[in-house]
Write a structure and sequence with these properties.
WH_DNA-bd_sf, transcription, mainly alpha, BlaI/MecI/CopY family transcriptional regulator, DNA-binding, elongated, 7% strand, BlaI_family, 6 helices
């Protein structure tokens, strides 16, 4: 099984990804900066580093530009995540040297334990539904 290359995200990259994941739509530079501003006016990362963060995340195939048109090409570009939050964490787990597919039941149990899930039967049914749905979509 070929594993997706693991990219360790910096805290600033992860912050930017969280902003994009929460937005549920592509955001432009200004919208990203507004979302990265705390209530007391502090930025979660330096404005000067935004361009570098975006380029690094595009190099890692975590985000893609959704281009503007005409004179708005540079200003109208929006950025959308190519990887979901859950896919990111799955990549982090599955790309470790020690990971094997046999670890999946233990990982699911650990997730349930640390999430405080009390309805394990319901969780198992949801997992089964999700797996069947993914298989129907051509997933492995």
């Amino acid at each position: 099984m070929k594993r997706k290359k693991k990219y360790q995200l910096t805290n600033s990259e992860l912050t930017l990804m969280e902003i994009l994941w929460q937005a549920d739509r592509p955001l432009n530079r200004q919208e990203i900066l507004e979302a990265a501003t705390t209530e007391d006016g502090q930025l979660l990362f330096a404005v000067s580093s935004l361009h570098l963060l975006i380029n690094d995340l595009m190099d890692k195939n975590y985000i893609a530009p959704m281009g503007g048109a005409g004179k708005d090409t540079n200003y109208g570009r929006r950025f959308a995540p190519l990887v979901t939050r859950n896919e990111h964490f799955a990549i982090q787990i599955t790309s470790t040297e020690q990971y094997t597919p046999e670890d999946i039941p233990s990982i699911v149990c650990s997730l349930a334990k640390y999430s405080g899930i009390s309805d394990l039967d319901g969780l198992l049914q949801e997992i089964e539904k999700t797996i069947r749905k993914k298989k129907g979509e051509g997933g492995k």
